[in-house]
Amino acid sequence: MVGRRSQPWAHACSHPSPSQGCCMRGRRGDRMTINIQEHMAINVCPGPIRPIRQISDYFPRRGPGPEGGGGVYGEAPPRLAPLALAPPAALLGATTPEDGAEVDSYDSDDTTALGMLEFDLLYDQASCTLHCSILRAKGLKPMDFNGLADPYVKLHLLPGACKANKLKTKTQRNTLNPVWNEDLTYSGITDDDITHKVLRIAVCDEDKLSHNEFIGEIRVPLRRLKPSQKKHFNICLERQVPLASPSSMSAALRGISCYLKELEQAEQGPGLLEERGRILLSLSYSSRRRGLLVGIVRCAHLAAMDVNGYSDPYVKTYLRPDVDKKSKHKTCVKKKTLNPEFNEEFFYEMELSTLATKTLEVTVWDYDIGKSNDFIGGVSLGPGARGEARKHWCDCLQQPDTALERWHTLTSELPPAAGTLPSA
């Protein structure tokens, strides 16, 4: 029977018979027989089964506090907190912005998994520009059959439409240690952008026969930059885990994907619209001419609307409400560019008291021959606007005869009145 032990003087025979059992000898001349089931249980199950100890029991914590315990080895702490998964930046030795200390470099050998990228960032507050100097990379991951890669760097400002603010360096051929020394500039960067936006720097491998391959990326919160102070970075690249396409995802994964998108939108803020580029506007109320002078200076990082990766942009302005429909002005069309310069001015004759009740709608369009023009983005300035658009309008009314230039973000929201006027 299970748990039964043999006597110290007993031993099993060498060849037991299943039918007769096993022979055991005690005193001289005595012979006893046990069944095979009892024989197989001898010295196998000495007692009740004890639970297996946890691995943490062999490595008790000795730090101060209730979890440290300060006990001796072999005594399990009352409760051990589960190990928290560290983010990739923490695994690489970099600190998060909440840690207080900024670590912008990481000393390592040449065998890092994805490689390292060296670059400089400078925010020029006076000109509203962000200068990105992509210097070099070191020890990139091989991506081609020859053990090398054809790397290039692309930049995106997040949150925002990638097509509207993508900048890209040249491609360096057949190297794992490329040197670019290229300066990429974002125009129309405001103090609000520095507070809320993140610069994504991705290193990719160019492949002429198939899709370009992702090597690694770095994300830098712009709030780490100080105006007019160049900041140097030398950081390890991190991996990016892309979500599967909706057609190949299970219902659970699709639910997770939708949840992540909703979470990202919630983190960006309620009612946030997709950015489609920037526009530099000049407003000035002329007391002598008794009217509003609107200057369309330039646009930056517009969304690409054509298959060639560019747009043929032009700008239209309206002063709403417009009962007589005579307030439309339109700039000329700039061909194949995402950063057009217009330098055109329009004049609206109106008393200052009446202008305070108006709203200036500015829309940017992509000109197409033989079909309706595509809406790129728009912005409204007036008493009902928010943020920088409202401030620009109020400053114009409060400071007559003063030209005020401000950058504004173009969003994907199509004004109802502009939606009925897609043609040039």
Task: Describe, in plain words, how this protein is organized in 3D.
The termini are far apart. It is built from eight helices and 18 strands. Among the domains are: 114-236, C2 domain (Immunoglobulin-like, Sandwich); 275-419, C2 domain (Immunoglobulin-like), CATH 2.60.40.150. The protein is elongated. The longest helix has 18 residues, at 251-268. It has helices at 36-41, 88-91, 162-165, 191-196, 251-268, 352-355, 387-398, 416-419, and strands spanning 22-24, 32-34, 116-124, 129-138, 151-158, 167-168, 179-187, 198-205, 213-221, 231-236, 275-286, 291-300, 313-320, 329-330, 341-349, 359-366, 374-381, 404-411. 14% of the residues lie in helices and 31% in strands. By secondary structure, the protein is of the alpha+beta class. Strand 11 and strand 12 form a beta hairpin. Strands 7-4-3-10 form a four-stranded antiparallel β-sheet, with no helix packed on it. Strands 6-5-8-9 form a four-stranded antiparallel β-sheet. Strands 15-12-11-18 form a four-stranded antiparallel β-sheet. GO terms for molecular function: metal ion binding. It comes from Carlito syrichta.
Write the layout of secondary structure elements.
Layout: E1 22-24, E2 32-34, H1 36-41, H2 88-91, E3 116-124, E4 129-138, E5 151-158, H3 162-165, E6 167-168, E7 179-187, H4 191-196, E8 198-205, E9 213-221, E10 231-236, H5 251-268, E11 275-286, E12 291-300, E13 313-320, E14 329-330, E15 341-349, H6 352-355, E16 359-366, E17 374-381, H7 387-398, E18 404-411, H8 416-419
Antiparallel strand pairs: 1-2, 3-4, 3-10, 4-7, 5-6, 5-8, 8-9, 11-12, 11-18, 12-15, 13-14, 13-16, 16-17
